[in-house]
Amino acid sequence: xxxxxxxxxxxxxxxxxxxxxxxxxxxxxxxxxxxxxxxxxxxxxxxxxxxxxxxxxxxxxxxxxxxxxxxxxxxxxxxxxxxxxxxxxxxxxxxxxxxxxxxxxxxxxxxxxxxxxxxxxxxxxxxxxxxxxxxxxxxxxxxxxxxxxxxxxxxxxxxxxxxxxxxx
Length: 168
Known about the structure:
Elements: H1 2-9, H2 20-41, H3 44-47, H4 51-69, H5 74-97, H6 99-106, E1 110-114, E2 117-118, H7 120-126, H8 130-141, E3 149-154, E4 160-164
Antiparallel strand pairs: 1-2, 1-3, 3-4
Helix pairs in contact: 2-4, 2-5, 4-5, 5-6
């Protein structure tokens, strides 16, 4: 059985010598493993666009693609991706139990505008133009006027959120 898997997945092959069929079987096995890793990492990984989550997405893809294409030995790519997902899970637990860790890793929201008062220093810090902020307000709140806005925030995931003023 072990020899069968070694031959099927080309576990002793290098990128220059791996056969197309072995790449296909590696792809199937890595796909199934990726599904398992997604279950372990939780829905947050793909529901959130925080910097940490983006790094995990890109690095996991890179590690698994190397395992598929035999750029690194198969088990090293799998071990690297698994370690990364477990590390991400540990960081998620840390940020849950220690909010200060979350603020360090994710950052905290910035107030871009309080009503019509635009916070130009925050826009500059976030590299967002006033026109970009106004476009986000139109998109997020369907408003064309900051006088109808209580607060505009740049959230830690990069999304702009708008709190409308109460209707009187």
